[in-house]
Automatic annotation (TrEMBL), chain A:
One GO MF term attached to the UniProt entry: oxidoreductase activity, acting on the aldehyde or oxo group of donors
UniProt keyword terms in alphabetical order: Oxidoreductase
Pfam families named among the record's database cross-references: POR, POR_N
Pyruvate/ketoisovalerate oxidoreductase catalytic domain residues: 20-207
Domain Pyruvate flavodoxin/ferredoxin oxidoreductase pyrimidine binding: 258-471
Organism per entry: Planobispora takensis
Name listed for the protein in its UniProt record: Oxidoreductase
InterPro entries: 2-oxoacid/accept_OxRdtase_asu, Pyruvate:ferred/Flavod_OxRd, Pyrv/ketoisovalerate_OxRed_cat, Pyrv_Fd/Flavodoxin_OxRdtase_N, Pyrv_flavodox_OxRed_cen, THDP-binding, Transketo_C/PFOR_II
From TrEMBL, chain B:
Native source species: Planobispora takensis
GO biological process: cellular respiration
Keyword Oxidoreductase carried by entry: yes
Protein name: 2-oxoglutarate ferredoxin oxidoreductase subunit beta
Transmembrane is among the record's keywords: no
Keywords, sorted A to Z: Oxidoreductase
SUPFAM superfamilies (UniProt xref): Thiamin diphosphate-binding fold (THDP-binding)
Domain Thiamine pyrophosphate enzyme TPP-binding, residue spans: 66-213
Amino acid sequence: MTKQVQQLDRVIIRFAGDSGDGMQLTGDRFTAGTAEFGNDLSTLPNFPAEIRAPAGTLPGVSSFQLHFADHDILTPGDAPNVLVAMNPAALKANLGDLPRGADIIANTDEFTKRNLQKVGYDANPLEDDSLAEWRVHPVPLTSLTVKALEGFDLSKKDAERSKNMFALGLLSWLYHRPTEATISFLETKFAKKPDIAKANIAAFTAGWNYGETTESFSVSYEVKPAPLPAGVYRNISGNQALAYGLIAASVQAKLPLFLGSYPITPASDILHELSKHKRFGIRTFQAEDEIAGVGAALGASFGGALGVTTTSGPGVALKAETVGLAVTTELPLIVVDVQRAGPSTGMPTKTEQTDLLMAMYGRNGESPLPVVAPMSPSDCFDAAIEAARLAVKYRTPVMLLSDGYLANGSEPWKVPSAAELPDISTAFATAPDEGETFLPFKRDPETLARPWAIPGTAGLEHRIGGIEKADGTGNISYDPDNHDRMVRLRQAKIDGIAKDIPALEIDDPDGDARVLVLGWGSTYGPIAAAVRRIRKAGGKVAQAHLRHLNPLPANTGEVLKSYDKVLLPEINLGQLALLLRARFLVDIISYNRVRGLPFKAEELAGVIQDVIDSE
Amino acid sequence: MSELLNGRGLSLVPKSDAKQGMKDYKSDQEVRWCPGCGDYAILAAVQSFVPELGLKRENMVFVSGIGCSSRFPYYMNTYGFHSIHGRAPAIATGLAASRPDLSVWVITGDGDSLSIGGNHLIHALRRNVNLNILLFNNRIYGLTKGQYSPTSEVGKITKSTPMGSLDKPFNPISLAIGAEASFVARTIDSDRKHLQSVLREAAEHNGTSLVEIYQNCNIFNDGAFDQLKDPEQRDDITLRLEHGRPIVSASKAVRRAADGGIEVVDRASVAEEEILVHDAHRADPSLAFALSRLDEPAFEHVPIGIFRSVGRPSYDEQMAAQLEEAVAQRGPGDLDNLLLAGDTWRIG
Ligand SMILES: Cc1ncc(C[n+]2csc(CCOP(=O)(O)OP(=O)(O)O)c2C)c(N)n1
Ligand code: SF4
Ligand SMILES: [Mg+2]
């Protein structure tokens, strides 16, 4: 029987199961197949903070959402079209996000009385009509997997473990995904255990064949490849892109990278990634705490390395005093803050944009520094290079504000070649330039940066420190006017970077929009998707997105003032709005939700429409 | 790699061609400690000692925290970093770990290293980074004008403890030995010869050396170490620790006690062969630790000298070795290869 094939322009799938069910791996593999097929895509994993919450419970549910399309897309999607629910907990935890008419593929084997009770189902929802609004496909995934693996010398338990591969096979059939990459992935992953590799491949194939033969699925779907610009692509998450960006920055700056870091969710993966690349001369130092991490990075910078520290909000709080020291000693340093929900421990695995004001002002004294925020997972690569460029050129600490959504989300990335990347190298001071005395705080007239004179350079021996320094000589100074001058010089140096960054670009196709929607950081995708919806419906709205938050692009004020209304969605209570209102006296309209989740395109489209309608 | 692990010490620090003297190491900055402060004596001892190492001056770095003692780097005509309170070991770790060609010195006070910076100190010691940590112990907070410190004796009356301090002090030597330090020594500001002999060994040592220097703060804790300076009693109190020599003062000797520990006895009462011979290189730290406890209660008998000096690979040389090994195994990193590793696909 040949089944019907239906064309779709985009699909959002959510794989959900117990944290022990391998949903992240399943999602990753489906993503790899989808990428290889040539769709544009965007992913969003969602895992519990607990490493192993009790099996079958709501807190133990782990999920992975993937949005793929035949055109370029901007977000992992608002609401899934398909939910794969490996157990009752996964169904219950995700049902609320599922629009009417969506497909539910449920593993019936796990809908036992006990499992149902664990999550408070009195009756089996697959058997009563409580799911009537959705299209339910009950599939005994576990027992089908066990049956498919009967010929293998495996315990029942081990065989059951392959059920995620059965599910992957079924979904791969349903959406016409290529299979070769997954098979070779499994062969490599289990190279040391060929039996397990074979079993997983058998489960995967059985899942595919089940789709082909079963009556529960009468239609399969095709999503054509997206017309993306020519090039070589790979899928990349924000944390990985950020780590690669730091490596690229080290190569392009011709400086050895020194990472001082202390593990913290959701930043640890950057430490893990960088520690794998010692071949690049990268030193990774897992310090005793965040203070030591940034201290060691600053010490390495003093010695001529590209000093980097990676952390999340609680760690930035601890590092503040050392960052201030970097501000006043005017040494390059990159501080990566992968923001998460706060205050305090907050919700470590959830995203937020709530550290902007801390990045700007969370230190004693006047201690300005540049703040850069990537706008998508792959943009973390370029943003890291940009942060390094500023740090090295202006001899300053730079805050790089990523967040949990960017860190763990992924998207296809057109891989640049090293030759396309900017040269961000700088020169160390080699000799005193005025007579015999070396002036460690004599500034470059253009950038106001001071010389970077590293130990080992004869004739430039000097002392730096946290005490106020006399302009030029760098000697300790308590002179009131000198302090006033130094405070202003440090500020002017950072402000001057505005001349060295791109102007704020406006996306306004017809040039006659009266409402501007502005964003920064990870909200780019949802905002842009919302803007598309408005325009598709005939509405007019302009969009602009800030990547440099300090200093702001030189034309920012002008842009804000040229619209009747400026809407600024932020995943905080209006931190950028506060800064912009104070600086430009513009009556920004804030839209704020702090739910630990990214905005949805539909939600933002509604907000934008309301602002347009209120014109 | 094995060659490297024999110990870096100062072997990678370039030597100076020119002959150096004390004046080469004096900076042009006016020294601003209170007249009579023990810090002067230590500064002079260091300035007159370092030329002996014959290193290039520009390859020497002094990193300090905050406190009176931490002003020290300003007065040395080398590279210097006067950092923030307690963090010097962390900053120096990053510097030393990435620059094997530098001789890195940490200058810290008892508050700086044992209160706010206690965590960094113990971790630097266990890692064994090539650092020389000089702990100026005046048993008081000098710079903040005289509060008690983590080495102040119980019952110390200060501005913040008008009825006497309650907390038991740290013994920095015991702490360092407990923190897996490979080199631990104690000396005193007033004995330049001894101070310099300890510094010499500390400088050559591979890994972190911790040198506790008893330092008099004549303003807020004057006379804290007077017993050790008083010609009447110092020779009786001071137990000299010299590797391979019996541990004795003028009138006392250390021997094994019946209970398995060690004890201080009247020197005249023991036969020479009963006296414990100091072994600074003993792998097992328990004897060195026991020696550090002899000073309880304080100043009845005080061991001075090198408690422990054992060979152990330093963190920085092992870190460098890992980088070399990574290159040896798979060649130097190539950015294009890195970015294209894993699943890729071509469009167009
Ligand atoms: C974060 C921070 N907390 C407190 C201080 C104030 N402070 C400066 S030095 C010091 C104690 C210094 O004592 P110690 O380390 O023994 O040095 P000494 O002055 O005795 O040489 C304190 C509490 C500071 N500078 N920074
Ligand atoms: S207060 Fe004490 S330690 Fe500080 S400079 Fe004066 S005498 Fe020295
Ligand atoms: Mg002190």
